[in-house]
Amino acid sequence: MQEQKLWNLLNQDRAAHGLAALPLDSALSGLARLKSRDMNDLRYFAHTSPTYGSAAQMLQQFGYAYRGVGENIAHHANVEKAEAAFMSSAGHRANILGSQWAKAGIGVWADGSGFVYVTELFVR
Q1: Rounded to a whole number, what is the distance in angstroms from the first to the last CA of the chain?
Q2: What is the pLDDT of residues 1-45, one digit of tens each?
Q3: pLDDT tens for residues 62-91?
Q4: pTM of the model as a whole
Q5: How many CA atoms does the CB half-sphere of 56 hold within 13 Å?
Q6: Backbone phi, psi, residue 56, to 5°
C-alpha cells in the first residue's frame, strides 16, 4: 500500500511537469524493497549497500537487464514526506523528472519506530 502510494505521488509530480507516468515494474520494486530492508536491517543509510553494492551492481547481481539506472533513497516519517524531500533536492528531483527513464521500482520498509526506508529505482 505504501509503495503504491509513493508510485502515485511520483507520477503526480511527473504529470505536474508535463511528463508521462512511469510504469511500475514488479521485479524492480522487489529489488528496491530488498535495498530498503537492507538499510533497515544493517542500520545504514547510503547508496552503496554493504550487501548489494551500488544500484547497478545490485541489478546485475540479480540478473535484471537495464541500460541505465538511477536511485533515490530516503528515511522519513512516511512516503509523502519522503517524496516531498526528493522533490526539494536537485539530484533526486532530476531522477523523478528524468525523461530518460522507462520504468520505476518502489520499495518501502518500515523501521521499528514506524518511519520508512524508501528506495526508488529508475531504469532504461
Answers
A1: 25
A2: 899 999 999 999 999 999 999 999 999 999 999 999 999 999 999
A3: 999 999 999 999 999 999 999 999 999 999
A4: 0.97
A5: 5
A6: -65, -45
What cell numbers appear for 43 in the block?
Answer: 542500520
Would strands 103-110 and 69-76 be described as parallel, antiparallel, or unpaired? unpaired
Scanning the structure block, which residue is given the C-alpha cell 545490485?
58
User: Can you list the alpha helix ranges (DSSP code H) found in the chain?
Assistant: 2-16, 26-42, 55-61, 79-87, 90-96
Judge whether 31 and 121 are in contact, CB under 8 Å.
yes
CA atoms lying within 13 Å on the CB side of residue 116:
22
CA atoms of 70 and 11, how far apart (whole Å): 16
